[in-house]
# Entry
Amino acid sequence: MRLTIAALFCTLPFAAFAAGTDDTKPPTPTETTTACTEGQVYDAETKTCKNPQDASLNDDTRFGAVRELAYAGRYAEAKRVLAAMQEGESDRVLTYLGFVARKSGDVPAGMAFYARALDLNPDNILARSYMGQALVEQGDIAAAARQLDEIRQRGGQGTWAEASLAMAVGSGQTLSY
# Structure
């Protein structure tokens, strides 16, 4: 099994493991992480950095900034942008709140956010993958494997969520991101 997981991991581009997407590339740094400060979001239309609460920003733009900030390890700023999202506590917001909490060291809060995301949308394979990775980090490989099975049963074969959790379950180690 480990050889299969290792082979899968080696055939996928490392960038496929960027949180929040099944893209094969990490988020491309934009001015959000290269020029803006304190959780501001770059607005490509006006070519300015804006506070995440700015009404001219939509949630998809904010969400892209969350992903970029999280990828850069700027969790407090990602959380600030998440707080400005207009869609409220949707499963995608809860998933990233969980990710930010877990990566900031508050694993119990992260797990609670993932559980709430899954209550809203049991098919949220990203929340399942992040929860599974937290379980691997805690040494509960069997529970992580159950999340991997759920991902596969819910149509997540071939996704970043499946591949990263399969690698973690097989190796006992998670990615830093």
In short: The radius of gyration is 16 Å. Residues 107-120 form the longest helix (14 residues). The chain has nine helices and two strands.
